[in-house]
Structure formats: structure tokens, C-alpha cells
Amino acid sequence: MFAHARSLLYRPCATSERLAPGVHRVRLSNSFLDVLGFCVEFFLIDELMIDTGHRHQRREVLDLLAGRRLRAIALTHHHEDHNGNAGPLAARHDCPVYLARPELLATEGLDRLPLYRRFFWGRPAPYEPEPMPDELDTGSRTLLALRTPGHSATHTVLFDPDSGLALVGDLFLSERLTPTMPQEQPSVLAASLRSLADLGPRRIANAHGKLINHPEAYLRRKADLLDTAAERVRSLHRSGAKEAEIVARVFPSPSRHDRINAWMSQGDYSYRCFVRGCLRDSQISRSE
């Protein structure tokens, strides 16, 4: 069923753009995702690949990399739109795949991938990641691996201290507060955003099309928004407000795009998950 639907809806495309000497970003898109204003990107720095895209566009990824040598693959995190092609690429290039906390590979929905995630991205091929080192050699430079949990417990930002470029995966998706998935921890995400800001990056690129110059103020402002919203959630909860009321009061005007995402994901990507994540963070803090 999925294959037939994709054949009707997908017009897959992979385009490469040079960001700096030795640094390229590759955008994976198709006609269906274009309508939603969404894309997936991975990056190539010399002989290092950062993220691998999703399984449904494997052919485009493999074709684009034909004749290119990879010494390693580094994953910003283990979600299926980032690790979808890690297995076949690692086998083709006989190279390691690095992931922070590889023991969590089957968590955060990857053990039983929800329907909407299977439709959009597909189930990743099996692979065996190795623990993410603190530094990664690309061939001409050394990247720092900064642990940045919040969106995912395995999340890592790859930072080039010489150029100031940070590849941030899904750490920073938007300037505004967006819906979250069940595993996300808004307060932890805020701390990770500040950790990256403290490094003073001159440019950030996420895995879904956003490129920001001089990002420090953006990172700190988003962290403040997260903390403010989280505190309001906790305050309303302490006053006896129920979940639906908290969602309505903290996020009174969700965008059409947010409502569509919540409907398509059956609530798996929603502001309800944001509220639950804030309350879960609060319980964890009290127990520590």
C-alpha cells in the first residue's frame, strides 16, 4: 500500500549545495513533502557523512554518492529520517557509523515505528553503530561532537571550531515553539541550546532546510521560550488544570500546519506531547 501511494505522490529529488570549501549539504525532497513545506538534508564534509536521509529516497542517496569515498558516518541522532540509509552506506564503504548512546537504538518509536513515520520516512535498514567519539576527523579538519539531548536522548551536534559551522540535526527546528514527540524533554532541550550558544557558532544548519548566520541570539531566545512555556505548564498543573486546558492556554492559536501534523500523527507530534514532556521533566528534577 505504501509503495503504491509513494509511486503516485513522490517525485523524488536530491540536490547538492556547497556551503564552504569541502562542505556540501544535500537536500532530499519530493512532491508530497514540498506541499507540506518539508525536506530532509544530510551533509558531507570531506570524507565524513553527517546523517544519511530516509529510506524512501535511498536510490537518490546512493546514486549521488556513487564514486565518493566515505571514511565514517556520524548521526546527529537515531530517528529514521536521519539514519535511514546508514546500513547500506556503511556496508558499501566499509566504514563505521557513529551514534551517541548506541544502546538506545531501538527506542523513541524505532521498535514499533508509528504509521505516519513509516509512510513519510520508512523503516531504517539495520546497522550497528559505534559510540560517538568526542572528535571526528573529516580528512582536512576536526569536528567536535557536542552532546545535545532534548529532542532525542542520542542527539549530537557536530561543530567545526575553525569555520564556526554547527550541524545541529533537529536541535533547532524553528524560532517558535513547535509541537514535540513523546520522548522530547523541553527543559533538557533548552539546556542543550544554551550549551551550543556558549560555543559561539557563526552559522548553524539543521537537517530540514534551515541555515542561520550569527545564531547565538536565536539559540538563547528559543531556550528562554522553552523555559517560559515549561514553567507556565507546571504552574497550571499545580493549580489543578487538566491537560487539555493547559494545552489550550499555553498554545491558544496553533497554526494550520501544527493542527495537520497533530491529526496525521494521531497526536504523536503535538502540543499535548510538549505539555507531557514538561511535566515529566519536572518529575525527574524532583527525584534527582
Discrete helix count = 11
Please give the alpha-carbon distance between the first and last residues. 47 Å
Number of strands: 13
Quickly give the structural class.
Answer: alpha/beta
CATH topology: Metallo-beta-lactamase, Chain A
The proportion of residues forming helix, as a percent range, comes to 25-40%
Order of helices and strands: HEEHEEHEHHEHEEEEEHEEHHHH
Rg for CA atoms: 19 Å
CATH superfamily, called what? Ribonuclease Z/Hydroxyacylglutathione hydrolase-like
Describe the biggest sheet?
A: 7 strands, mixed
- What is the global morphology? globular
Short recap of the structure:
The protein has 288 residues and is of the alpha/beta class.
Could you describe the 3D structure shown?
- This protein has 288 residues and is α/β, with parallel strands linked by helices.
- The chain has a single domain, classed as 4-Layer Sandwich (Metallo-beta-lactamase, Chain A), CATH 3.60.15.
- It is 38% helix and 20% strand.
- It contains eleven helices and 13 strands.
- It has a seven-stranded mixed beta sheet.
- Helix 8 packs antiparallel against helix 9.
- The mean pLDDT is 92.
